[in-house]
């Protein structure tokens, strides 16, 4: 029995899990002290046997408790020591990391936002659900305008609609801010379209610069947008064509020399050597009148982000942006 009490003390003093395991075997193994003492019980008379068995069982319980307790304590100490030894060096380069620019659409959108915000344009996201005034009327698109047809626009029951372009953001900006105003409106827009270059949901960027009379003119618009097109497409030629938008006068569209054939003519540019990129113009007097601004001048522009992403990332079917095919992301 004395040897068993000594084992209990050794358990308290154990410093490693291996030492503890040795003590467990010494006590409970085939040839262990407890095994030996229990075997000896059979030689005792009935009374001594009962007394010794009780004493032995109490000692065994105490041993098992002390052992379990010590084991837990030593396990935490060893774990702590192992974790300290395994410190991660965050400064080491990991060549296995997978770098991605993200989805080509988000990447293109961020590039556009970066460019204009660095020039001092304030970012507006606007609301996706608009009323007819902000989406059409204020932009000089009266009730008979074809874009207002049910075939083109997603309407709700109460004359609300999913914005068909980001141009309503310029109306909100002019209604809520005092000129000078310099803003871009960015985000999803919706039309009833579906083919290789058109989807029901797509993204646009709108730009608006407004200041008192004669301070903003078409020359500023041309400079800002030509610089922007060179930032996105590099060394391309830019061509301006006159065009029509109800909310700008004069209106124009900018083309770039085809990035695939460098202007020689190919399938992508329909053999013309040019690619249409954006619409722009000076803000129409009617629009200023609709938002109650006087003695004022300004320019606006708008473009489709998918179109830019298709050209810069060489993707020929716009619908593939929305098909969540991981292979598309892996290609970037
Ligand atoms: C507009 O939406 C005008 N609000 C742009 C504007 C703003 C002009 C300010 C002048 C001043 P448009 O309908 O052409 O213009 O659309 C602009 C671009 O959106 C198109 O060139 C095209 O790239 C893109 N787009 C139009 N419909 C879709 C569609 N269904 N899917 C993908 N992109 C589309």
Automatic annotation (TrEMBL):
Keywords: Aminoacyl-tRNA synthetase, ATP-binding, Cytoplasm, Ligase, Magnesium, Metal-binding, Nucleotide-binding, Protein biosynthesis. Binds 2 magnesium ions per tetramer. Gene3D superfamilies: Bira Bifunctional Protein, Domain 2 (3.30.930.10). One of its GO terms (molecular function) is phenylalanine-tRNA ligase activity. It comes from the Bacteria. PANTHER family: PHENYLALANINE--TRNA LIGASE, MITOCHONDRIAL (PTHR11538:SF41), PHENYLALANYL-TRNA SYNTHETASE (PTHR11538). This is Phenylalanine--tRNA ligase alpha subunit. The gene is pheS.
